[in-house]
Amino acid sequence: MVRGRISRLSVRDVRFPTSLGGHGSDAMVSAGYMGARACGPSYSGDWSREGSGAPGDSSHPKCSVGFVGQAGGKGNSPHKCFREEQMLAQGYPAYTTSCAWLGYSDDTLKQVGATALQQGWLRADLLVKNLFLQMMDANQRWDVPEAVEWMSKLAKFKPLWIEEPTSPDDILGHATISKALVPLGIGVATGEQCHNRVIFKQLLQAKALQFLQIDSCRLGSINENLSVLLMAKKFEIPVCPHAGGVGLCELVQHLIIFDYISVSASLKNRMCEYVDHLHEHFKYPVMIQRASYMPPKDAGYSTEMKEESVRKHQYPDGEVWNKLLAAQEN
Amino acid sequence: MVRGRISRLSVRDVRFPTSLGGHGSDAMVSAGYMGARACGPSYSGDWSREGSGAPGDSSHPKCSVGFVGQAGGKGNSPHKCFREEQMLAQGYPAYTTSCAWLGYSDDTLKQVGATALQQGWLRADLLVKNLFLQMMDANQRWDVPEAVEWMSKLAKFKPLWIEEPTSPDDILGHATISKALVPLGIGVATGEQCHNRVIFKQLLQAKALQFLQIDSCRLGSINENLSVLLMAKKFEIPVCPHAGGVGLCELVQHLIIFDYISVSASLKNRMCEYVDHLHEHFKYPVMIQRASYMPPKDAGYSTEMKEESVRKHQYPDGEVWNKLLAAQEN
């Protein structure tokens, strides 16, 4: 066991004005960015392993479009080393929410959709099966009867899931919605705002969801996320992580690839959200190939940001905010 | 409607070293204390209406002893003005948790118990009925089967309730515990850590509690508390507020007296927690007479602290902490 001591902490308020471009259905994207300096017999450290949380992350898609499929049946192999090789070669299937933000005009929607297709958001196995999936997101806006009423009407568009149909704390409400919508072929997806394993335990116990969306920063620590992965395995519910925000994709790829290799051993009905924003600010950004997350090869949790990016986007004194706030005053 | 503008806010970190005397089963009692200066056509204010929250409040009794009874059947009167007069004359029934902290020795327990009796913690109607109630508090320590197992063994002591038997977020767990314990004559009490009305809605829907314990500072705003009072009325579950900490008694008395006069119209199975600590730091402290909260007669929410108390107990630079921290270093 490595023993050490945290000798210094730095906490910085980093914000990105993504709302100016209409990226995300809510306000700007922000993160509390914390760095720790550690020292000890085996590690006399620099600020080289940073951790970030995104308590102010408020980027939510209203409607998601993705392309995904089963990995040719290979996903159920019992062999961990095989699954590891498979991940290294093919990556973990992703879906993109970059192309359907509420704030986009119809023209922009068409353009970003076309760009997504050009960027390879069609997997080879999907092309053959001609599979097209559509997901919807209510961002917690409905009460329980409203959610059932709206989604019953929207069932003709065959959405795979409705995400956050009501308050994320309303386990019994989600159970009622699930019961009404599953017969219509619509699953309930939720989890990005669930604050601990106790809420997830109940969502699973109450059969309140068909897709479980962990978030790498909402739950407190990697360990809390792992406990949810294990419960999802027990209840045979696929985990489809929430991502986007500031660095959520970078973090959650570790969790979901671990889930496949060591816990679920299946890709059936599984995919990880991907949003094509803000990766340029990270030292070890995600690598997407053929609409899949390629396993990160650097050590650590991929959380470290470029110092220049942090400095520029610190609120309210960073260069970016200095200019924006000055412009607002004029 | 009064219109105005908040022109200044002050937020201060106030802590009381109650743990030094073993008062409370957890660590010291702390509060974020916020003052607001308002100005407007009808109010050009001083700091005379302050609001406080107690996010760091961590005073939990492990075992509570109280004396309480029905108010002679009068509590069910349909007349609001009668209930108002009744409150002004008799006050709202309270129970005390000052005499059973975990940190106290057996001798101290006997002494504080005797003092409580001397202070009048026997209501007249109770003396006649010779009613003695005992409540137990698990402070969320158990998992669900543990709670059932322990309380089944403790049933012989006839506790009125078991408080927070498991995680406060575990609605389905509380429902399981309730189902097992109600036949043994033990109710489940919870709520002091419930963060919004959605959690309370589900606790009520799932028949997960027999006593509902709102907290004046845990829920965000008076309005959120009022929504819970209304739901409790609908489900016919008595509200027995949590109090103690820094100023919780001062705040919650307003809510529970309002509940009696305008919502529940009943005192049956109802009482409000009282802890005899820290009231001397408040400008408008609670007034307890014959083990009852007497309605506050000053305007406002009774939240304002004495400036001298705040100054002395500010962490880490107040006089009290200066001395304590210096002593710790020596």
UniProtKB/TrEMBL annotation, chains A, B:
Q: What is the annotated signal peptide range for this record?
A: none
* InterPro entries tied to this protein: Enolase-like_C_sf (IPR036849), Enolase_C-like (IPR029065), Mandelate_racemase_C (IPR013342), RHMD-like (IPR046945)
| Pfam families named among the record's database cross-references | MR_MLE_C (PF13378)
The cofactors required by this protein are: Mg(2+)
Record keywords, A-Z: Magnesium, Metal-binding
One GO MF annotation is: hydro-lyase activity
Q: Would you say which domain of life the source belongs to?
A: Eukaryota
Question: GO biological process: what's one of them?
Answer: carbohydrate catabolic process
**Annotated protein name in UniProt:** Enolase superfamily member 1
Q: Name the source organism.
A: Aotus nancymaae (Ma's night monkey)
Q: What is the lineage of its organism?
A: Eukaryota, Metazoa, Chordata, Craniata, Vertebrata
Gene name tied to this protein: ENOSF1
